[in-house]
Every structure is written in structure tokens, then in C-alpha cells.
Specification:
The complex is a heterodimer of chains A (112) and B (113). Chain A is mainly β and 112 residues long. In chain A, 0% of the residues lie in helices and 61% in strands. In chain A, strand 9 (86-94) and strand 10 (99-102) form a beta hairpin. Chain A is globular and about 45 Å long. Chain A starts with a strand and ends with a strand. Chain B has 113 residues and is mainly β. Chain B contains no helices and eleven strands. The N and C termini of chain B lie far apart (37 Å). Classes of the chains: A mainly beta (112), B mainly beta (113). The A-B interface holds A 4, 31-32, 34, 36, 41-46, 49, 89, 91, 93, 98-100, 102-105 and B 4, 6, 33, 40-45, 48, 55-56, 89, 91, 93, 98-99, 101-107, 109.
């Protein structure tokens, strides 16, 4: 059974700092990995999708990497801003179970 | 920009009552998903549709939950009767095909009293 873990559960940084969020998965048989942002009480916003054949994807200040062999993905946020404060979730599309398996998220707080 | 629509946004009901949630996916998306998210946890899949057919409802409590997507477009998720433990965020998502990028709606926050 695929399990997705995100560490740390919570992170607090000052504005302007570069930061890395970690995501690990137990089964390397994934089709892709998706990073989401969720604001309190809201739905999920897709940030980046990395196909299993790719190593990384970039969108603005965000860069996500994928290492299937080690079962790890990272989300790098450059020059963090207070507006980046949210919960960040990673999810792996499990090839065997044919569904998206989510981590429990990292709650990020960027203070001015 | 195309979005997934959900209604209602909030629902408060008493236990043993029936509730229904509606979802309209992004136009052209054949795959539709219903998730339940408990506070502090990641979403968990309840049911997945491919067009009008259910392809995965293994985690759907079928004694009280039902879902349909009659014309392969919008979908309804129903709970009858609601229980206290059903209080959660119910999220709908859609994608072009299974495994493609998923886009989520704003969710329905259900509170069962």
C-alpha cells in the first residue's frame, strides 16, 4: 500500500527566506506526483505536476524535483512571501491502485 | 479560466438527515473524483468516475453514501442518514483522464450536529 509522508508538519520562516518542503513515498511505482496548495477552509490549488519520467518542474518561484529511486520529492520556494502562507500537500498517482495518494501536508507560515 | 464548481459551500445538518452535494467538473474532463478530507489530514478518495461509470468506490461507505454521474458530466454525492463522524470537507476534482493533473473545486464543508 502506497504511503506518502510530508516532513515537517509545520514550518515558520521570516519573509524572504528560501525554503524546502519534503515529500516521501514508499512505492516507486508512481505515474506522476502533484503538489497542491490549500488555504484554510478552501479547496486545493494545483501548483506543479511532475511526470515519473521527469526530474523537475518549475513555475515562477516554485521548483519541484522528483527522485523515484529514493522515493522523494521536494518543493523549493524561493524568496518566500507572507502570501505563501498555506498548507502544501503532495500526492502521488499510484500505478497499482490507480489513484492519487495524499500526504498530510506541511503548514507553512511566512511572517513579515 | 475553467474551474470545478461545487455547491453548497457549507452545509449544517442534524444526524439522521439526508444531505446532497453537487459538482460540475471542468468541461471536457472525463474523470471525476469525490474526496473526503478530515481536518489536518490529506484528502481520501471516496469514488472515481470515468464518464458515467464508477471505476473505484472501494472506500465509499455504501450503506449510507451514494454517488451518481448520470450523463457523464455533473455529479451528485448523497449521504443518508448523516452521522456525526461524517463532518468533514467534501472535495470534488476532475481530470482529462485517470492519472492526469487533477483540478479541485472549492469544497463543501459539512457539519453534522
Amino acid at each position: 500500500k502506497q504511503e506518502v509522508t510530508q516532513i515537517p508538519a509545520a514550518l515558520s520562516v521570516p519573509e524572504g527566506e528560501n525554503l524546502v518542503l519534503n515529500c516521501s513515498f514508499t512505492d516507486s511505482a508512481i505515474y506522476n506526483l502533484q503538489w497542491f496548495r490549500q488555504d484554510p477552509g478552501k479547496g486545493l490549488t494545483s501548483l506543479l505536476l511532475i511526470q515519473s519520467s521527469q526530474r523537475e518542474q518549475t513555475s515562477g518561484r516554485l521548483n519541484a524535483s522528483l527522485d523515484k529511486s529514493s522515493g522523494r520529492s521536494t518543493l523549493y520556494i524561493a524568496a518566500s512571501q507572507p502570501g505563501d502562507s498555506a498548507t502544501y500537500l503532495c500526492a502521488a498517482w499510484d500505478t497499482g491502485f490507480q489513484k492519487l495518494v495524499f500526504g498530510t501536508g506541511t503548514r507553512l507560515l511566512v511572517s513579515p | 479560466e475553467a474551474e470545478v464548481a461545487q455547491s453548497p459551500r457549507y452545509k449544517i445538518t442534524e444526524k439522521s438527515q439526508a444531505v446532497a452535494f453537487w459538482c460540475d467538473p471542468i468541461s471536457g474532463h472525463a474523470t471525476l473524483y469525490w474526496y473526503r478530507q478530515i481536518l489536518g489530514q490529506g484528502p481520501e478518495l471516496l469514488v472515481q468516475f470515468q464518464d458515467e461509470s464508477v471505476v473505484d468506490d472501494s472506500q465509499l461507505p455504501k450503506d449510507r453514501f451514494s454517488a451518481e454521474r448520470l450523463k457523464g458530466v455533473d455529479s451528485t454525492l448523497k449521504i443518508q442518514p448523516a452521522e456525526l463522524g461524517d463532518s468533514a470537507m467534501y472535495l470534488c476534482a476532475s481530470s482529462l483522464y485517470p492519472g492526469d493533473e487533477q483540478f479541485f473545486g472549492p469544497g463543501t464543508r459539512l457539519t453534522v450536529l
